[in-house]
Model the fold of this input.
Amino acid sequence: MSDQKSSVHPIPDVDALRNTLRGTVSFPGEATYAAQKVSWNFEYNDFKPLAIITCMSTWDVSHAIKYLRKNNLDFTVAGGRHTLHSIKTGIVMLDLSGLRSITIDPETQTGVVEVRPSHSNVLVP
Done:
């Protein structure tokens, strides 16, 4: 018989993962889970990821992927929730919607845009 903690958090050593990320790890039944799994396509909002890891930095992404691989956990990647590819039940969803920064190097005239900037991050008055 499994203990209550493993049934609430079906992925191993979740506290260690939570303590290393700037983002969050959410499970079904937790307050943040329902809001984080919403898709823009409301026909597909009844999917149920095993957990949602919300990344706030590229370090979070790297660390989360290493953790998922180490623990042999299948995952999908979600950015803006416009695609059905990120909608999976029973596996971990890696949420990249918190990656919104834009870095411009005026000397080289190059820029780096993360996964999901909004128009207000891009438009300059």
